[in-house]
Fold:
Amino acid sequence: KCVESGGPEPGVGCAGRGVITSINFLEENGAYDDVDYVSYDVLGDVVCGGFAMPIRENKAQEIYIVMSGEMMA
Structure:
């Protein structure tokens, strides 16, 4: 299975809220049943709390933080 979700267009709405809504939708529809791993690629800031949801809600058993000095990273 592979699922990708996004948020509202830039400057409109709250992208963090989109993350929360997406994760809740996936849970309700059984997307996390019988999977070996789940990968979240999220921003490190806490806009509306959504970007940190996989960590905050104990949805992660392991967390890898990847950082870069590149301005566009």
In short: The chain has one domain: 1-73. DSSP finds two helices and no strands in the chain.
